[in-house]
Amino acid sequence: MRFENRKAIITGGASGIGLAIARRMASEGARVTLWDISAENLDAAAQDGLRPRQIDVTDAAAVEAGMAEDMQAMGGLDTLVCSAGITGPNTTVIDYPLEDWLNVQNLNVNGLFYCNKYAAALMRPGGFGRIVNIASVAGKEGNPNASAYSASKAAVIGLTKSLGKELCDTEITVNAVAPAAVESPIFDQMTAEHIAYMKSKIPMNRFGTPEEIAAMVCWLTSAEASFTTGAVFDQSGGRATY
C-alpha cells in the first residue's frame, strides 16, 4: 500500500492510460480524483470507486478552481498525473488545418501547463509532491504526418525539465514518461496507416499496454523515486534511441 494517505488528480483519467494509472494507484491506497471531459467515461469509471470531475483542462480558471476544490475534498493534494491529450489529424505540415493545430497545442501543452502550474503552487507550501506528465517518443523523434502531436509532446518534455529544476529546493519531483504507441482509445483518433507505421517502428513488434505505462508512472509517483526529477523515461519497446 505504497500510496496510503496519498491524494491524486489524474487528467484524462476516465479511459486508457489515465484510467489504468488511477486504478493501480487506488488499489495501492491512494484517494484518486479523475479529471476528464467525457461525462460518459467518467460515469463508467466512477463505478470503480474513483472520484469524478468533468472538466475542460484548457480552461485555466476551471483548472485553478478545480485543484483547490479537490484538494479540500480529498484532504490534500500530493500527486498529479497529466494524461489528457489528443492526436490531431494525420496529415502533412503543408496540409495541416490551422484550427486542428491550435486545438492540439491548446490541450496537450496549455492544458498541461495549467495543471502543472496550479498543482505545483498547491504542493509547494507542504514541500512534497509528485508530478508526472505523459509525453511521447514522438516528442523526441517527430512522427511524419503527426506534426502537431509531435511538437506538443516535445513541449511537454521541455516544460517537465524546467519545472523539475525550479522545484529542486523541495521534495516535489516532476518527470515525464514517453511511450511509443500504446493500444488504447486514442487509436480511434488515428488512421489505420498511421497506426501501422507506429507499430513498424517498435522493435518488439507490439504495442504497449496502459498497464505497462501505469507501472512506470506509479514508481515515479512513489516515495522511492526521491532522487529523480526533470527526467524523461522511455517506454518504447526498443524504439527510442536517446
CATH architecture: 3-Layer(aba) Sandwich
Detail the poorly predicted runs: none
Strand arrangement across the biggest beta sheet: 3-2-1-4-5-6-7
- In the CATH scheme, what's the topology name? Rossmann fold
The major β-sheet equals: 7 strands, parallel
Question: Can you give the mean pLDDT?
Answer: 94
Task: Please bin the fraction of helical residues.
Answer: 40-55%
Number of helices: 8
CATH superfamily (homologous) name: NAD(P)-binding Rossmann-like Domain
Termini separation comes to 34 Å
Explain the overall architecture.
Helix 4 (98-123) packs parallel to helix 6 (147-166). The protein has helices at 16-27, 39-45, 60-74, 98-123, 138-141, 147-166, 192-200, 210-220; strands at residues 7-11, 31-36, 51-54, 79-82, 128-134, 171-179, 232-235. The longest helix has 26 residues, at 98-123. The chain has a seven-stranded parallel beta sheet with strand order 3-2-1-4-5-6-7, sandwiched between helices. The protein is α/β, with parallel strands linked by helices. The protein is 43% helix and 16% strand. The protein starts with 6 loop residues before the first strand and ends in a 7-residue tail after the last strand.
Write the layout of secondary structure elements.
Layout: E1 7-11, H1 16-27, E2 31-36, H2 39-45, E3 51-54, H3 60-74, E4 79-82, H4 98-123, E5 128-134, H5 138-141, H6 147-166, E6 171-179, H7 192-200, H8 210-220, E7 232-235
Parallel strand pairs: 1-2, 1-4, 2-3, 4-5, 5-6, 6-7
Helix pairs in contact: 1-8, 3-4, 4-6
